[in-house]
Amino acid sequence: MFIRARLLATAAVAAFALTTAPLSAETPPDTFIQAWAIDDMITLDPAEVFEFTASEIIGNSYETIIGYDVNDVSNIFGRVAESWELSEDGLTMSFKVREGKTFASGNDLTAEDVVYSLVRAVKLDKSPAFILGQFGLTPDNVEEKVKQTGDYSFTFEMDKAYAPTFLLYCLTATVASVVDKDLVQSNEADGDWGYNWLKTNYAGSGPFTIREWRANEAVVMERNDQWDGDKPAMARAIYRHIPEAATERLLLEQGDIDIARKLLPEEIEALSQNPDIKIQSGVKGTIFYLGLNQKNENLAKPEVREAMKWLVDYDAIAETLVKGMKKKHQTFLPEGFLGALDENPYSFDPAKAKELLAAAGLPDGFTVTMDTRNTPEVTSIAQAIQQTMAQAGITIEIIPGDGGQTLEKYRARTHDIYIGQWGPDYQDPHTNATFAQNPDNSDDAASKPLAWRNAWEIPELTAKADAAVLERDTEKRAQMYRDMQEEVLKTSPFVIMFQESEVVAMRKNVEGYIIGPSFNDNSFRAVTK
Predict the structure, then answer these.
(1) Would you say residue 5 has pLDDT above 80?
(2) Structural domain tally of the chain?
(3) Which of 47, 52, 333, 453 could cysteine-pair with 340, CB 3.0–4.6 Å?
(4) Do 308 and 445 reside in the same domain of the chain?
(5) How confident is the model at residue 12 (pLDDT cuts 50, 70, 90)?
């Protein structure tokens, strides 16, 4: 049965991998086909996933411990957890696991699986492990801090009395997805916690299973009939790697795909006039920014950092290249988050930038490289920035690469400038303290937030971020984040430019597609055609 399903799914991908003559077509009624750029995917393991595409796929195939209403993120509820209670000293949260849940394998989901998933994520210590590590969990102590107390209960012990919602929001992140312990353990090799197997396989309980991933080509998902929620109408969902906006538009108009995800404003505008197509949009918490590596001696100069903030034509880019898809936004907390600061003081001013470069001892400018994901949108923004920086003498060499390549280089902090996006891992403001927190700036640091990736050593600002996450008075906490944003805005090696709106085009018969505030909230389980 597994082999037959796999062959059918593979055949479905092959059938839709061809661009035919522009004749009207129609996708199968039980198959939802998306065109997107999926070149940022490096793994399917929830303990390692930290990229936009894979996060969305995990969000539709695994279940996290806690969830929230995508229309009102303050409305927190249990997914795998049924209920929870905080101890009087604020250090231990006790959870009851919902009974009757089953993995796609047919195995029961119990507290043993939940504890195993959390312990496994911390022990593997991949990029998203820091989300759990914020509570004092380490590979050495996690088995003492996260304990099963019954078949359907467990406790989570923290090192400090954090704001209670901070832990709950962190348990909505993909790293808090519950994996099937028996299935993963049966595929362990040399004590690897099943890591090498789960990179390309599936062990979840969500509405869809992951049947197949072919890098830079396609992901095939199938309905999980073991899921205890309302069963998806679609028998399968397919992601096709189509990074070219014009190609996506053509395929959508022909009916070869149901939804186009990587369109430019001109394609959106043209498709909005097509009676067979409809446009849907939603505000994301995603921030678009430049990261300036402080290991580069020129970029490490405060005057250079500030000069570069005056060398982006924010308004021109927002009104042309990304019209309707991004809006000018220069602080690290997106709109809608507790403590978000609505200040945009920088505009395009090459004269002011030249004064700052002269003060830095670089009156003639300098040459620097910028790593850029090779998609039309990012490339066009990078080229616009290249042109405006040149007006003050800063020569930028653009180094294009696919999403995985540029991310790996950025995470190794071997870049000069990185142009990229940061999406919140959870809906608490501390998720974006990654721009303002760097507890250890050494190359082998355990915690590697964005400030670390750009080698920005900030002990005092880190202490402020540490204090903010402990504050239980909501308004006081909000003000602490506003103060941090002010400081980051003025002094950081981040040129924060835009907040994103996700805009997609779809066939008019598609209903039930949800654009959430984070990419792992994007959902197609309720899609009908």
Answers:
(1) no
(2) 2
(3) 333
(4) yes
(5) very low
Residues contacting residue 297 through CB under 8 Å, at least 6 positions apart? none
- Burial, 403: exposed, middle or buried (Cβ in 10 Å; 0-12, 13-18, 19+)? buried
Among residues 150, 170, 201, the one where a domain terminates is 201
Q: Mention every residue, 6+ apart, whose C-beta is less than 8 A from residue 358.
A: none
In a domain, 38, yes or no: no
pLDDT in tens, 339-355: 999 999 999 999 999 99
- CATH number of the domain that 176 lies in? 3.90.76.10
Which structural domain range is residue 308 located in? 284-501
Residue whose C-alpha is closest to residue 437's, from 469, 395, 479, 466: 466
Using DSSP's 3-state secondary structure scheme, residue 201 falls into coil
Q: Transcribe 304-364 into DSSP letters.
A: HHHHHHTS--HHHHHHTTTTTTEEE--SSSPTTSTT----------HHHHHHHHHHTT-TT
What pLDDT is stored for residue 24 in this prediction? 52
What average pLDDT does this structure show over 415-431? 94
Nearest to 440 by CA among 462, 416, 424, 418: 462
What the block records as the tokens of 243 is: 């990074």
Rounded Cα gap, residues 527 and 368, in angstroms:
46
- At residue 18 the predicted structure's pLDDT band, cuts being 50, 70 and 90, is very low
Separation between Cα atoms, residue 414 and residue 468, nearest integer Å: 31
Bridge-based pairing state of the strands 259-260 and 326-328: unpaired
307 and 451 both lie in a single domain: yes
Amino acid sitting at position 114: V
| Cβ atoms 271, 504 nearer than 8 A | no
Mean pLDDT of all residues belonging to the chain: 93
Q: Supply the pTM of this predicted model.
A: 0.82
Q: What is the pLDDT of residue 191?
A: 95
